[in-house]
Protein 1
Amino acid sequence: MKRFSIVSTKGGTGKTTTVHNLAAGLNALNKSVLLVDTDPQSNLSYAAGRFNDELGIYDVFNGLSWQSAVQNIRDGLDIISADHRLVYLENKKDLHILQKAFKSVKAYDYLLIDCPPSLGYLTQSALITTGNYLLPLQTEYLAMRNVASLNQLVSELKPERKDIKLAGVILSMYNTRRKLSGEGANIIKQHFKKVFKTVIRNTVAVTEAAAQETDVITYKPSSPGASDFISLAKEVIKLK
Ligand SMILES: Nc1ncnc2c1ncn2[C@@H]1O[C@H](COP(=O)(O)OP(=O)(O)OP(=O)(O)O)[C@@H](O)[C@H]1O
Ligand SMILES: [Mg+2]
């Protein structure tokens, strides 16, 4: 089983959209996926149509087994949802609660954790649970500005888990009509060793799918958005 957190300090870089549609892409390629939403905003839970009064990740942080909090989306795709109670956890101290809770998750091919746009307790818990993380970056001038604080956090977390590492940068929300997007992409490629070849274009079907509480592959399988996420899923499957 492979595990990834989707992390970035900056808000609105496409974390939730990436994790949701990447899961759908992996699922379309016959992989089983457990999605976990750790963001109090609960955008992933909404986008997957699973925001409700059921038990969620907050309860897992409070001792509930993950099995009791799982909701099914479709065959081979499950989610543990978030809700606003998660804000009360930001002052918690034990960084290993989530890691211990997910020790026994072996039945899936992938565990994907969506994080809030902060480097607080929830993101730290996710990083310690998965080790590997994916970083979505917009191809814009200021994209790199917050990367230093994430690097700093990862080195501070080394005593808790020494093998936390960036599995790859995903160029997200790419605007094919803007020259600056290409320049931004080049700067990012020079800076990071691993940048996925697939570029996630900014397309309307991706947003529409979330509004319809589903992913773009289910919503419009023939759209550019669907093909981008299938292509990203193929690259993720090939990761060592
Ligand atoms: N490829 C895309 N094409 C079109 N719209 C997109 C794309 N990716 C993201 N968006 C839109 O951009 C907005 C921000 O994306 P998203 O919620 O995924 O970012 P985020 O990093 O999870 O944000 P936050 O930091 O608030 O959690 C959303 O309205 C989403 O629908
Ligand atoms: Mg989000």
Note: Residues 224-238 form the longest helix (15 residues).
Protein 2
Amino acid sequence: MKTGNHLSPIQRCSFCFGKVEYVNNEKIYGSSYGHHPFAYLCGDCGAYVGVHAGTKIPLGTLADASLRTARKLAKEPFLKLCKNMDRTLAYFKLSHLLCIAMKECHFGWFNVEMCGKAYTASCELLAEEKSK
Ligand SMILES: [Zn+2]
């Protein structure tokens, strides 16, 4: 497990500046989900993010519906890439194309704009890999 690279607990919503609470994720999904069913949830706009199992450390930054969709889409070509290549190497190549540090290269940290760039970059890497 990586350490020294974690986000702090979330108190304010990055979308609406509402108050964010640490909740059981049944508040989001209707029933508890997972072994460690907790999340940060904005009571005002409903943006949320899960936490690392056994901790209060958020998995990424808060995401509203459009950002959740963007992250999911961006991750698809990257996951395909990881089937053909070591995950660490894939993250290394992606961070290089995105011009960010590898330790900042987490889909859970990206905003919508970065998700778009990550999607394009991952597709390029995937095409490159297939042409070998
Ligand atoms: Zn909010």
Note: Residues 13, 15-16, 18, 42, 44-45, 47 surround zinc ion (CB under 6 Å).
